[in-house]
Amino acid sequence: MSAAPPSRTPGATPGSHAEVTLAANMRRARRVGFATIVIREFSRIMRIWGQTLVPPVITATLYFIIFGSLIGGRIGQMGGYTYLQYIAPGLIMMSVITNSYGNVVSSFFGAKFGRHIEELLVSPLPNWLIVLGYVAGGMLRGLLVGLIVTIIALFFTHLHVEHLFVVIAAVLLTSVVFALGGFVNAVFARNFDQITFVPTFILTPMTYLGGVFYSIQMLPEWAQAASKANPILYMVSAFRYGFLGQSDVDVGFSFAIMALSVAVLFTACVWLMNKGTGIRE
Amino acid sequence: MKALSLRQLCKTYNNGVQALKGIDLDVEEGDFFALLGPNGAGKSTAIGIVSSLVNKSSGTVTVFGHSIDTDLEAAKSCLGVVPQEINFNQFEKISTILLNQAGFYGIPRPVARERMEYWLNQLQLWEKRETISRSLSGGMKRRLMIARALIHEPQLLILDEPTAGVDIEVRRSMWEFLRRINEQGTTIILTTHYLEEAENLCRHIAIIDEGRIIENDRMSTVLRKLQTETFVLNLRGPLRRTLSLPGYRVTAPDETTLEVEVNKDQNLNEIFGALSAAGGEVVSMRNKANRLEELFMRLVEGRDVGSGQPTAPPAAQAGA
To answer: I need a surface site. Which of A127, B50, B138, B148 has the fewest CB within 10 A?
Structure first.
């Protein structure tokens, strides 16, 4: 038989050389474990590319053709930019949101449904690392689709980038937030209806009402106030600020909302995993 | 060292069912241990708790000295589990399943590939490594789960009904395989409904019923507790004279078959003598039930395996 696995490392007394080796082995094991989950998720995205990559590309292309080229020409300028330039960041962000969320919710629920989540649950990987692995998978798909949609956008319009760091930070944080959201949904879901309910009846309306297609300055005051209760508004606004240099809300506040959402949702995910909600009896 | 130690382990499910009622159990390192019990006795719950798939209500579990409460990662590293139900991704190839599982245990890819080749060869699955797991036969799926459980070379292997639904040839080859890895040092805990399997393979046995351990000892000691055995004797033809066998319980399902219940203090010579006197010629003999099965039934259900048969025909006269 080949070399013994890290599990056979003998016990160690605190501060001893053996303990240092044990800790190093554990760090290495966690790195390998995390990479394995991410590679598995990426392989899944690529294996079923017809379901993961193609639909958002078609949807985005239709948006650009209909709202950008056909209707957009009649709307005129918004904030000094063409309508297509104005909605392009929103459309990119919309694809990032739906795909980050969709990847985790379908992959984790699928693993629950097929019971192969047990492969991870019996392994020595800590729960927080399992959450991170799935979130990284969701980010990968969200960012990959976002990149493809950006490239499509470039066929229709010129994209000016005002603050590159803001663009990158906003898209990364948003994909983390919605990957975590998808994880929570998958943990609670007991059937396939329950993994489509949130995206269809909550996520899509919130995205459409989150300033993807318009500035909330165009709305009456009560509607502006209502819009500010929608967290997606802050993400779309921050992302658009990175491109156009203009935002409906304070960008610093937007990043605070995103960071807070990440912290709360990550804590919730790990807590649910530790408690065993939906996965352990 | 104890491979597994359970102390006062209790589990009450949300629906109020008390699956485990304070189980104490020790499995020594290197042992081949049978955990038996009727359906719903609590075996799978106990295994689920040890492998972190079921939350315990109270009690302690330690795996090679690592508590699952305080040192869960180390405890899990020592453990390999082959569950009763298929639980791998049926859309993935065998190689992908094994390499991923190795990765979850922190085994780098080059080492994982070596181990995959070794274990797939051991389990006669190497040629199928690029096959989508969904298309494997039932026996191959079972062997794949064993290979997956061994890819990180655990010190303790728990198998929950590993040979359920596989043909006799595959079952026997799996027995050989399990014996070999046990000899190489892997502690094995086995649950099975094939009691012949437990009797053949295991050195220690615990019987669990209604959430409690009702028997826990060496296999040989447990089998000695069996007070009676029932033998089935096949005769060349019907008895020519009345069989006189006082003190024995004899039934005859048909003219050429006798079932004789023999107590520990009785012997077979008397039976053969009486049969010769009655003009009977015994052509073959076997245990009516596996010895462990007989004991298991008596312990679990208080069922008398030797009784309940058709009454003897006139030629066979049961002794007083």
So the answer is: B138
- Nearest CA-CA distance, residue A97 and chain B, Å: 27
Q: Which residues on B lie below 8 Å from A29 (Cβ)?
A: 105-107
Q: What is the nearest CA distance from B300 to chain A, expressed in angstroms?
A: 26
For residue B121, give the chain A residue with the closest CA.
Answer: A1
Say which CATH number the domain at B271 has. Answer: 3.30.70.1560
pLDDT digits 0-9 by tens, B184-240 = 999 999 998 777 788 889 999 999 988 999 889 998 888 777 667 788 899 998 888
Q: What is the distance between the alpha carbons of residues B77 and B101, in angstroms, rounded to a whole number?
A: 12
Residue percentage of chain B with pLDDT more than 70: 92
Q: Based on the fold, state whether residues B97 and B183 are members of the same structural domain.
A: yes
Distance from CA of A29 to the nearest CA of B (A): 3
Question: Tokens representing B205?
Answer: 């046995």
**Same domain, residue pair B69 and B148:** yes
Quick one: pLDDT at residue A16? Answer: 58
pLDDT averaged over every residue in chain A: 90
What ranges make up the beta strands (E) of B139-273?
156-160, 187-191, 204-209, 212-218, 228-235, 243-245, 249-254, 257-263
CATH of the domain at B134: 3.40.50.300
Please check whether residues B164 and B293 belong to one and the same domain: no
Cβ–Cβ gap A35/B154 under 8 Å: no
Q: Which of A32, A126, A281 sits opposite B107 (nearest CB)?
A: A32
The H-or-E segment that residue B10 falls in is strand B2-12
Domain that holds residue B57: 2-223
Higher-confidence position of A17 and A62: A62
pLDDT digits (tens, 9 = 90+) for A105-148: 999 999 999 999 999 999 999 999 999 999 999 999 999 999 99
Q: Is residue A89 a contact partner of residue A239, using CB atoms and an 8 Å limit?
A: yes
Nearest-angstrom CA–CA distance, A171 and A163: 13
Looking at the structure of chain B, the number of domains it has is 2
CB < 8 Å to A37, chain B: 103-104
| Interface residue ranges in chain B relative to chain A, Cβ cutoff 8 Å | 13, 48, 51-55, 65, 72-74, 76-79, 81, 83, 85-90, 96, 99-101, 103-108, 111, 114-115, 118, 148, 152-155, 184
B92 and B232 fall within a common domain: no
pLDDT surpassing 50 at residue B16: yes
Q: Are residues B154 and B240 in the same domain?
A: no
Where does a domain end: B223, B258, B286? B223
Q: Which residues pair with B159 in a beta bridge?
A: B82, B190
**Does A119 contact B at CB distance below 8 Å?**
yes
Nearest to B106 among A33, A39, A43 (CB): A33
* CA dist., res. B192 & res. B46, Å (int): 14
Strands (E) in chain A, as ranges, are 77-78, 81-82
Q: Are strands B187-191 and B156-160 parallel, antiparallel or unpaired?
A: parallel
> Which of A1, A2, A7, A119 best tests the B interface by mutation, with the highest count of B CBs <10 A?
A7
Report pTM.
0.84
Give the residue among B114, B13, B97, B5 at the shortest CA–CA distance from B55: B13
Q: Which of A35, A116, A276 sits opposite B87 (nearest CB)?
A: A116
CA distance A236 to A80: 18
